[in-house]
């Protein structure tokens, strides 16, 4: 995926550099819990997870949680707990995604599996996944924990389901646009909506969870399309390489390639752009209906990306 660096100023109004530095310390501490860092037998999973977290990233999900927590008057500690839990989940998914996709680099440096091997990378991803639940267990409003844990599991399960569908598509099959959207929503939308949903649930606004998910899912589709438009040639080349090796013609999960395979679309790039713009407007619309101005961050993100996609050649 392309960088989300342009979103940094969008999410800066309620998120300070000090809180982000605290977030980094919190995540590293949680990942290292129970590890003695014995010089004779250091835990490679901890080292690999720490290496990955240290590679940077825009921390968009953490920023969304901190923004929502501030809007909803959660304590700074509780907002940080939600932010760290969501960010650990997301980073676990990235480590596992790189294994599945055989991507050798992430954030400008060797990906975890490429540096440490598949086995350690799997363990590092599992460690961050488990650490996210440990992090959430520290949420101060104890009575809310059963609901928060259930919600987090539901979104993780959705992301896993989407990944499985993408990985196990039958050979010689071409996705439909609806199937493409479902995969994008499951793989990206679930963990993107989670920060806002957790904050809303913690603050007693469970009635707004549906709107938060609609906004995040629409944004996820729009962003995936924006990303696909940057990667058409790369995905086409990767797809050709896979087909030559496996004697299959399964298309890469790129909307432009999907539209190219359908004779009904004479200008697949333009059609993809149109679909992406529509979903980003839907995300902006849904976000405005969220309580306590929680949706401001998602709305601004959606409109900023809408403008970038609109002027894209």
TrEMBL record:
<comment type="similarity">
    <text>Belongs to the FPP/GGPP synthase family.</text>
</comment>
<dbReference type="InterPro" id="IPR033749">
    <property type="entry name" value="Polyprenyl_synt_CS"/>
</dbReference>
<dbReference type="InterPro" id="IPR000092">
    <property type="entry name" value="Polyprenyl_synt"/>
</dbReference>
<dbReference type="GO" id="GO:0046872">
    <property type="term" value="F:metal ion binding"/>
</dbReference>
<dbReference type="InterPro" id="IPR008949">
    <property type="entry name" value="Isoprenoid_synthase_dom_sf"/>
</dbReference>
<keyword id="KW-0479">Metal-binding</keyword>
<dbReference type="GO" id="GO:0004337">
    <property type="term" value="F:(2E,6E)-farnesyl diphosphate synthase activity"/>
</dbReference>
<keyword id="KW-0460">Magnesium</keyword>
<protein>
    <submittedName>
        <fullName>(2E,6E)-farnesyl diphosphate synthase</fullName>
        <ecNumber>2.5.1.10</ecNumber>
    </submittedName>
</protein>
<keyword id="KW-0808">Transferase</keyword>
<dbReference type="Pfam" id="PF00348">
    <property type="entry name" value="polyprenyl_synt"/>
</dbReference>
<dbReference type="GO" id="GO:0008299">
    <property type="term" value="P:isoprenoid biosynthetic process"/>
</dbReference>
């Amino acid at each position: 995926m392309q960088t989300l660096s342009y979103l940094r100023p969008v999410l800066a109004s309620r998120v300070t550099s000090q809180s982000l530095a605290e977030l980094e310390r919190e995540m590293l501490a949680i990942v290292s819990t129970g590890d003695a860092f014995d010089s004779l037998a250091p835990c490679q999973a901890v080292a690999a997870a720490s290496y990955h977290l240290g590679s940077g990233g825009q921390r968009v999900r953490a920023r969304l949680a901190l923004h929502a927590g501030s809007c909803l008057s959660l304590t700074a500690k509780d907002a940080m707990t939600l932010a760290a839990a969501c960010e650990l989940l997301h980073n676990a998914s990235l480590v596992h995604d790189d294994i599945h996709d055989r991507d050798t680099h992430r954030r400008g440096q060797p990906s975890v599996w490429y540096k440490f091997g598949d086995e350690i990378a799997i363990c590092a991803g599992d460690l961050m996944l488990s650490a996210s639940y440990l992090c959430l267990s520290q949420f101060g409003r104890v009575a809310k924990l059963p609901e928060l844990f259930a919600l987090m599991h539901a979104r993780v399960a959705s992301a896993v389901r989407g990944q499985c569908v993408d990985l196990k598509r039958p050979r010689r099959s071409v996705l439909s646009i609806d199937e493409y959207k479902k995969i994008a929503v499951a793989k990206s939308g679930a963990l993107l909506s989670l920060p806002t949903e957790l904050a809303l649930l913690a603050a007693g606004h469970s009635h707004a969870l549906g709107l938060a998910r609609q906004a995040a899912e629409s944004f996820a589709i729009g962003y995936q399309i924006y990303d696909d438009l940057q990667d058409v040639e790369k995905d086409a080349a990767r797809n050709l390489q896979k087909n030559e090796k496996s004697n299959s013609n399964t298309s890469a999960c790129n909307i432009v390639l999907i539209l190219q395979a359908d004779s009904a679309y004479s200008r697949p790039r333009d059609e993809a752009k149109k679909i992406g713009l529509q979903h980003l407007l839907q995300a902006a619309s849904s976000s405005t209906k969220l309580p306590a101005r929680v949706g401001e961050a998602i709305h601004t993100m959606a409109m900023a990306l809408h403008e970038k996609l609109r002027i894209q050649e």
